[in-house]
Design a protein that fits this description.
By secondary structure, the chain is an alpha/beta fold. It has a single domain, classed as Nucleotidyltransferase, domain 5 (2-Layer Sandwich). It has 6 helices and 6 strands. Strands 3-2-1-4-5-6 form a 6-stranded mixed sheet. Helix 2 links the parallel strand 4 and strand 5. Helix 1 packs parallel to helix 2. The N and C termini lie far apart (47 Å).
Length: 184
């Protein structure tokens, strides 16, 4: 009997949070959904973080993912944007951890490499490859949702490999793997 599981992929952001879900049956993946949470209209950063947490919980409670793959923050324009992105990722991770769902982080280059074979691929190249692999009829206007979907597909492709990234099965595992970051 084929094993079945659902993977939720998240591309965290404080302007747009993209997400995608795939179902894995045996060694085949099936597209479930992709979408984005639009946060541009909110000025308050804390409201955005609250909405990211709530939407992630809603996705978890609706689709019951077995695993979460999340794009790790990368150093971009400036320290402030990096901090905001890290916070967005953190609240999405906290939502998953609160439901005891294993989480794995992937660097953007690793996701692009897994999907296209090129770690420097554009968002458009990643989206087109996902469209081809998953048989998507059309692509969204914003490609943040395909970035979230790409994280899920990357996780599927990397399953069973020794080095997958950082995975946490709950708060205890997170604390053990990050002892120096935890204040006592």
């Amino acid at each position: 009997m084929a094993t079945e599981k659902i993977i939720l992929g998240i591309d965290p952001g404080t302007t747009i949070m993209g997400f995608g879900l795939i179902k894995v049956v045996g060694k085949k993946m099936e597209f479930i959904q992709m979408n984005e949470l639009m946060l541009k209209k909110y000025d308050d950063h804390y409201t955005k973080l609250k909405l990211i947490f709530e939407r992630t919980i809603e996705l978890i409670d609706t689709y019951h993912p077995d695993e979460i793959a999340i794009e790790a923050p990368f150093f971009g324009k400036n320290v402030q944007s990096m901090l905001k992105l890290g916070r967005a990722q953190g609240v999405a991770m906290a939502a998953g951890l609160s439901r005891e769902i294993p989480i794995t982080e992937y660097l953007p280059k690793k996701i692009k490499m897994a999907i296209t074979g090129n770690g420097n691929a554009s968002k458009e190249q990643v989206a087109k490859m996902l469209q081809s692999v998953l048989g998507l009829k059309s692509l969204p206007k914003n490609l943040d949702s395909t970035d979230g979907l790409a994280a899920a597909v990357c996780h599927f492709y990397n399953e069973g490999r020794v080095e997958v990234g950082k995975g946490y099965t709950g708060w205890d595992a997170f604390v053990k793997q990050n002892a120096k970051r935890v204040k006592k």
